[in-house]
């Protein structure tokens, strides 16, 4: 506390990201990054933009990321005006809270979900209801069919990994015609159904995606929102009242190149999905309960071993997994699917610790 702080800052509860270890080569299974590098075309595009002398860097980037948005639009069969690009989907989500989710009636999201949501609600003074998930961590559809101030769902959900079907999402969107339904699809490419196909039909649906997970570009900070042109205009109004240039030149060309290499993207996703199933079976053999996952991580609980202690013992061996000290999930660990070698090292370490 400090008397110079504003009221808002005194009340904030900032989001705590997973640890980024200082050592160069830990086994890092705690922040859901992709274990594989981005497409070689990304490296080439960044090098081309940089050139010999970095000549382009003295100029501001395109404030609207037009070429990137055109590429992404063509990829999804949409119009560029239906796409907003921001500095990571975290920034896109923050603008969404400001632009579309602050109303008199409370915003609804699950009690167990991406822990940035309540943080944004506090920062932007958005009232919300955290709706309890069922005991198996599934979303109870009927909790989101009333008329709320807005609905925000991660699909697949984090940190559980569970996914809703497209039919369920359409039902929620239909049941909330007077408020915005936001679907955060950070992990959708690892096995869930995207709601992008619905945005032409529903003016109240906003889909948020990122290049951080399935496209291996967490370090570049590029995220998107997809929706009706008027929803996108709302986000642009907030952006242009905050920072006109959220995406730097290298981020724009890197993300564009990533969308131009579908083969790399698809084989990368398939690789992670195959490794996820292999890791799931190995963990189940070791006595873990594993929540069904459509994401690039597994949410697991050991029948007898304490989760926080387990995370600590793994960290002593330079293996990082995520433990949340939160009600209902403090006996669980969230484990990112790594390379097969990393998963094998995790399983070997767990075998030693559990014995
Ligand atoms: C990782 C993640 C994000 C943030 O992604 P960035 O684009 O890297 O900011 C958003 N939502 C969920 C549910 C995530 O897990």
From TrEMBL:
EC number: 2.6.1.9
Any single biological process term in GO: L-histidine biosynthetic process
Catalytic activity line of the entry: L-histidinol phosphate + 2-oxoglutarate = 3-(imidazol-4-yl)-2-oxopropyl phosphate + L-glutamate
N6-(pyridoxal phosphate)lysine sites (modified residues): 213
Aminotransferase class I/classII large domain location: 25-350
Pathway as given in its UniProt record: Amino-acid biosynthesis; L-histidine biosynthesis; L-histidine from 5-phospho-alpha-D-ribose 1-diphosphate: step 7/9
Coiled-coil region list: none
GO MF term set: histidinol-phosphate transaminase activity; pyridoxal phosphate binding
Top-level taxon: Bacteria
Cofactor (UniProt): pyridoxal 5'-phosphate
Alphabetic keyword roster: Amino-acid biosynthesis, Aminotransferase, Histidine biosynthesis, Pyridoxal phosphate, Transferase
The family this protein is said to belong to: Belongs to the class-II pyridoxal-phosphate-dependent aminotransferase family. Histidinol-phosphate aminotransferase subfamily.
Record note on quaternary structure: Homodimer.
NCBIfam families: hisC (TIGR01141)
Name the UniProt record assigns to this protein: Histidinol-phosphate aminotransferase
């Amino acid at each position: 506390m400090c008397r110079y702080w504003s009221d808002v800052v005194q009340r904030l509860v900032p989001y705590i990201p997973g640890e980024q270890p200082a050592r160069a080569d830990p086994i890092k299974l705690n922040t859901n990054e992709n274990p594989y590098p981005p497409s070689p075309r990304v490296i080439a595009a960044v090098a081309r933009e940089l050139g010999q002398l970095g000549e382009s860097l003295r100029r501001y980037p395109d404030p609207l990321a037009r070429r990137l948005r055109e590429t992404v639009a063509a990829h999804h069969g949409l119009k560029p005006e239906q796409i907003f690009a921001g500095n990571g989907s975290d920034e896109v989500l923050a603008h969404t809270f400001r632009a579309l989710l602050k109303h008199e009636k409370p915003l609804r999201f699950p009690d167990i979900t991406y822990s940035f949501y309540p943080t944004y609600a506090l920062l932007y003074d958005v009232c919300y209801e955290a709706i309890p998930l069922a005991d198996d961590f599934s979303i109870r559809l009927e909790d989101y069919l009333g008329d709320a101030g807005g609905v925000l769902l991660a699909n697949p959900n984090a940190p559980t990994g569970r996914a809703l079907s497209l039919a369920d999402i359409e039902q929620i969107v239909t049941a909330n015609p007077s408020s915005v339904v936001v679907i955060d699809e950070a992990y959708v490419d690892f096995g869930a159904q995207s709601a992008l196909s619905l945005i032409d039909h529903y003016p109240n649906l906003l889909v948020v995606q990122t290049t951080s997970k399935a496209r291996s570009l967490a370090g570049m900070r590029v995220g998107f929102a997809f929706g009706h042109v008027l929803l996108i205009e709302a986000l642009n109004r907030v952006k242009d009242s905050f920072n006109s240039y959220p995406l730097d030149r290298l981020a724009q060309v890197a993300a564009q190149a990533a969308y131009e290499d579908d083969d790399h993207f698809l084989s990368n996703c398939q690789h992670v999905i195959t490794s996820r199933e292999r890791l799931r079976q190995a963990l189940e053999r070791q006595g873990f309960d594993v929540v069904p996952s459509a994401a690039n991580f597994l949410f697991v609980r050991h029948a007898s071993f304490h989760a926080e202690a387990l995370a600590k013992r793994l960290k002593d061996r330079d293996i990082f997994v995520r433990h949340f000290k939160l009600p209902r999930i403090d006996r669980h660990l969230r484990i990112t699917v790594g390379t097969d070698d990393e998963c094998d090292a995790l399983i070997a370490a767990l075998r030693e610790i559990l014995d």
